[in-house]
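hey
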């Protein structure tokens, strides 16, 4: 098969790899039909995730068809179309029994494209298939569903739920990439009073407005002052960090009101300063987290019923064999206008490489 392989810091290659096979009785082998690239993948390529070794097939988000299962798999069968979750829970350890799948101690958690070969390939081996793949209704489009593998559960769980968004809240989302835009979309489910989006790119801020942001600001438009003006100097009820750099994290801590909540979603590769000398007296709640994907069935149900749309986030589509080009386009989002790229096998997508998909 062909797969996207990490070659070391700054280098990936679409190359021949052995077809995956069943290694454990809980495994499923899935023929990949739609896949996407995550910001975390870019962090891996930059060298921010040292656990990922050269030779690893990247990727942890996909939709495909089951072609083989181990003898202990009960929830899916060959021929069934499924969503592959970014987290693979063993279902038996202490944390899995608490539905904290991201902290799995039984050999699972975030393993795909991290500690085992991932989904940016023609075929993928998925461990703990009973909990890590979800059957897809026929009415759900593969390119819509693939965003429920990671982007939407992460934004919803680590941003909206951890941040405890409530009706009437002022919510600030710093970073209007895929995660930030999905956070805006899912935060609206809780009827906040206003949502403010902050980003460097005006194209992403335009997307944020289309998805429900009430106000936007670039970094040079004094976003902290904007939040202060909108809240009579009090600060935001909830601030979500969706970038993963020290400067944006520290900005978030300055935007939160006394008693406010800061939900860090971004993947950080460098230390950030936590100014406790300013925060200790403000009753601030700070949360971090890796997604558990426990919300995936709910989000999938909402999508199937037309209550949740992800299509706005996919701006570019490619064939699987154009993986290296897709990485280039996604990695230069400020120049290309890419929000989220989706790739599919030739029989499942009509491709116009590096061209934005029209959204009416």
């Amino acid at each position: 098969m062909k797969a996207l392989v990490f070659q070391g810091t700054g280098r990936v290659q679409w190359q021949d790899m052995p077809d995956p096979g069943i290694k454990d009785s809980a495994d499923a082998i899935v023929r990949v039909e739609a896949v996407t690239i995550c910001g975390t993948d870019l962090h891996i390529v930059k060298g921010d995730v040292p656990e990922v070794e050269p030779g690893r097939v990247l990727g942890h988000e996909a939709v495909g068809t089951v072609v083989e299962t181990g003898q202990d798999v009960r929830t899916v069968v060959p021929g069934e179309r499924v969503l592959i979750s970014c987290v693979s829970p063993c279902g038996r350890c202490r944390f899995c029994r608490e539905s904290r799948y991201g902290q799995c101690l039984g050999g699972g958690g975030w393993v795909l494209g991290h500690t085992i070969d991932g989904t940016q390939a023609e075929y993928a081996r998925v461990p703990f298939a009973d909990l890590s793949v979800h059957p897809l209704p026929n009415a759900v489009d593969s390119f819509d569903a693939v965003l429920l593998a990671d982007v939407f559960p992460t934004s919803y769980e680590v941003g909206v739920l951890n941040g405890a968004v409530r009706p009437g809240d002022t919510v600030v989302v710093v970073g209007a990439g895929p995660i930030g835009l999905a956070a805006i979309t899912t935060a609206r489910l809780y009827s906040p009073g206003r949502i403010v989006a902050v980003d460097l790119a005006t194209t992403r801020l335009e997307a944020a407005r289309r998805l429900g942001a009430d106000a936007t600001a670039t970094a040079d438009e004094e976003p902290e002052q904007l939040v202060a003006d909108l809240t009579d100097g009090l600060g935001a009820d909830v601030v979500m960090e969706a970038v993963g750099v020290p400067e944006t994290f520290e900005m978030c801590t300055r935007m939160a009101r006394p008693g406010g909540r800061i939900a860090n979603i971004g993947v950080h590769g460098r230390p950030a300063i936590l100014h406790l000398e300013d925060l200790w007296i403000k009753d601030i709640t700070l949360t971090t987290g890796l997604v558990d994907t426990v919300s995936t069935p709910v989000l999938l149900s909402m999508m199937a019923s037309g209550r949740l749309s992800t299509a706005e986030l996919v701006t570019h589509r490619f064939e699987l064999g154009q993986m290296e080009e897709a990485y280039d386009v996604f990695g230069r989002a400020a120049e290309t206008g890419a929000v989220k790229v989706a790739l599919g096998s030739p029989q499942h997508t009509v491709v116009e490489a590096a061209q934005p998909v029209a959204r009416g």
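Residues 31 and 123 are 5 Å apart (CA to CA). Residues 349-360 have pLDDT under 50 and may be disordered.
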